[in-house]
Write a structure and sequence with these properties.
The complex is a heterodimer of chains A (about 240) and B (about 180). In chain A, helix 1 packs across helix 2. Chain A has a 6-stranded antiparallel β-sheet, with helices on both faces. In chain A, about 45% of the residues lie in helices and about 20% in strands. The relative contact order of chain A is 0.10. Chain A is of the alpha+beta class and about 240 residues long. Chain B is built from 8 helices and no strands. Chain B is mainly α. The chains are: A alpha+beta (about 240), B mainly alpha (about 180). Chains A and B meet through helix 1, helix 3, helix 4, helix 5 and helix 6 of A and helix 1, helix 2, helix 4, helix 5 and helix 6 of B.
Chain lengths: ~240, ~180
Amino acid sequence: MTIREARFILSAYRPSGSDADLPAFGDALRMAAADPSLGGWFTHSRAHDAAVAAKLKQVEPPPGLREAILAGARVSDAQRSRGPGRAWIVGLAAAAVLAVVLISMKTPTRPESGPAALAEFAINDMANGRHGGKGEPATALVAELETKGARMPGAGQIDFERLRDTGCRTLNFAGRDVLEVCFSRDGAIFHLYVARRGAQPGDSPAGAPSFVAEAAGAAAAWSDSRFDYAVASAAGVEAIRKLL
Amino acid sequence: MTNEAFTQLVDAHYAPLYRFALSLARNGSDAGDLVQQTFFIWATKGHAIRELSKAKSWLFTTLYREYLRGRRRDSRSSSLEDLPPGEHEPVAEDVDRVSRIDSAAVMSALQNVDEPFRAPLTLFYLEEMSYQEIADALDVPIGTVMSRLSRGKSQLRAAFVSAEPPGTKVLPFPTAKGERAS
C-alpha cells in the first residue's frame, strides 16, 4: 500500500474513531502509526473533519417545518386519493394550513394513549431517539434500576417533577410529559418510561403488564395510581419479564 | 404506526434530514420541501417498514432519490469525469479556519462542493455514517463512496480557503531571530 492509497482509505475514517476495528482500515491505520508524515496528515484530517461536523450540526431547521410535516401527515390519507404528481404539494400545504387552524381552534383530539400505544412509543423511541439526560435524581434512579434483582419502581419512588426539572430526558406522549432513563441489567440495555396519568374517567390502573414485541425490540407497559410505565429493550420480552 | 410514533420519528430525524437536504438543494425553501416530501412518502408508503431501526436509512435514501428525481427534471447533472481531482491536503491551519467561521459559512462551503460529492460528505459529517452505510443509503459501490469522500473533502477544504475574507489569514509568530516558529 502506498501513502496515497492509505490517504484515500483514511479519508473515509470517521473522526469519532468508530471505524477503528473495521478490517478495511487496518493496514492504513498501521501505516499511519508507523509513518510520521502520514500520521501527521491523518491527525490534521480527523481534526478538520471533527471541526466541520461540529459546525454543520449547528445548522437549525426553519421554524414551523416540524409542524408542517406533522400537519401534512395527518391528512396524508386524503392526499393519496388525489393521485400521483406534484399536485399533492399544493394540497398538502392547504391541508397543513387547515390543520394548524383546527389546532388553534382547539379542536378536540383523541390521541392514542393506552398501554399498547405507550409500549409502541417506547420501542420507537428506543430505536430512533437520541438518548441522554442528566441530573442527580436521574442518576440515583438509574443506580436503583441497575441493582441486581430490583423490581421496577412504583409511584412512591418517582419524584416526577424533580426528575424532570433537574434534566432527566423528557418526551411528550399523547400530550403528557414522559421521563426516560436508560439502564443496564445483566448485560442488556433497558429504557424506562414514566408518564403521569391523566384525568381519564373510568380509566382504572391495569393489573398485569401488557407486552408488545416488534422487530426493533419489545416493551411492557403497566400503570399504578399515579403513573403509566413502559420498559423497552432490544433484548426481548423474556429479558423484560425478569425485571417485573 | 400511531400518530405518536410518527411524531417521534419526525422529531428524531427532521433536523438532520433538513441539513442533508440543505446541502443538496442549496436553499432553505427547497430543502424544506424535500423534507416534507420525504415524510409524506413515509406516511403513505414507509409505514410498511416494520423494522424501525431501518427508518433512518430509509428516510435519507428516499430524500436523496427525491432530490435526484427533481434534479433530473430540471437540468443535466455533472459527469464525474468532468470534475477536477481534489488536491488540497489538510494542514493545521485548515482546522483553525473552520473554527473561525460560523455554521452558515461552513454549510455554504459544503454547498459549493460538486454535487456528486456533497451527499456522501453530508452523511459522513452530519450523521457520522460509515462508508458502508453511505453506500447503502445512496445505492453506490463502496469504492465510489471512498473516492467521493476523498475528493469531496479536498474540494471542501479548498472552498474554505476561497471563502475566507482577506486579512484573516493566521501567520506563524516570528521568533527573536526572525525565524518562524514551527
